[in-house]
Design a protein that fits this description.
Blueprint lengths: L12 E6 L1 H14 L5 E5 L10 H5 L1 E6 L7 H6 L4 E5 L10 H8 L3 E8 L9 E8 L6 H25 L18 H8 E2 L5 H11 L9 E4 L2 E5 L4 H6 L4 E4 L2 E5 L4
Parallel strand pairs: 1-2, 1-3, 3-4, 7-8
Antiparallel strand pairs: 4-5, 5-6, 8-9, 9-11, 10-11
Length: 257
């Protein structure tokens, strides 16, 4: 492990932010390499980072995993040992819900990417990639599961250096893809036109049906808005929900508030 001659102190704190389950799994891996001299702190909300003093941040390294938060530039610059993000997608798919867009485009390979965090999202130097093959039968839901496992494998391969080496991790000669997916694009794919062809509807529902926490496939029909029914459609009927079926796919009427 590199001995930091140009640093006046070693890493004192590892801050972890992101999806709760992902953070817990990352913490378990970190604990295998922690000799007890480094404090591990889980961050639930981005606002918590603003509570750390300048000295605390100077002795810290941030790990972000499956996070929907954008870390402010002032925090990134205050961190003494940098911030690294573990993105649930390959370099070809920077941005929002990459597994859904990959499923829609019929990607034959996918993976996870580790990179230095910069002010621009999913744009920093890439330090690691874990890839795997994707079959045509793989759904977006299955792809998320496979991607998370790849992400954990990638973190395991970098964990010791992230924990113990205060110098910046070396970047790979790998570039990010030119098109960054967004929440707005996700919502556009979820807005199904009433005259949509059956093949295209099935393709969109298969890719975006799991939702992104903000929206799911929906359509306007007869002046009413309908959203993709839950997997357990019988539950909708028991609750007396009004539904329609289009191209063999069920949608539930959205109640007006």
């Amino acid at each position: 492990m590199t001995t930091p001659k140009e640093y006046n102190k070693l890493i004192k704190t590892i801050l972890i932010i992101g999806n709760t389950f992902a953070v817990d799994q990352i913490a378990k891996i970190i604990n295998k390499y922690n000799d007890g001299n480094i404090e591990i702190k889980k961050i639930d909300y981005i606002s918590q980072l603003q509570l750390f003093s300048a000295d605390s941040l100077k002795g810290a390294r941030l790990i972000s995993c499956c996070s929907t938060y954008i870390v402010p530039p002032d925090i990134l610059s205050a961190l003494g040992f940098g911030a690294y993000n573990f993105h649930p997608g390959p370099p070809e798919y920077p941005g929002w819900a990459p597994f859904c867009f990959a499923s829609y485009h019929g990607a034959t390979s996918f993976g996870a990417t580790a990179h230095l965090m910069t002010e621009k999202v999913d744009a920093g130097p890439i330090i690691g990639v874990e890839s795997f093959a994707v079959t045509p039968a793989t759904s977006a839901e299955e792809l998320t599961f496979q991607t998370f496992n790849a992400l954990l494998r990638l973190f395991e391969s970098l964990a010791e250096r992230l924990l113990q080496d205060p110098t910046p991790l070396p970047s790979l000669p790998v570039a990010w893809g030119p098109k960054r997916t967004t929440k707005k694009q996700f919502a556009q794919f979820c807005a199904l036109p009433p005259d949509i062809k059956g093949e295209e509807m099935i393709r969109r529902v298969r890719a975006f049906g799991i939702g992104d926490g903000l929206c799911r496939p929906s359509l306007q029909w007869g002046g009413e808005r309908y959203v993709l029914a839950e997997a357990d459609g019988e539950e909708d009927n028991r609750q007396g929900e009004e539904t329609i079926t289009l191209h063999s796919i069920r949608f539930t009427k959205v109640k007006k508030s």
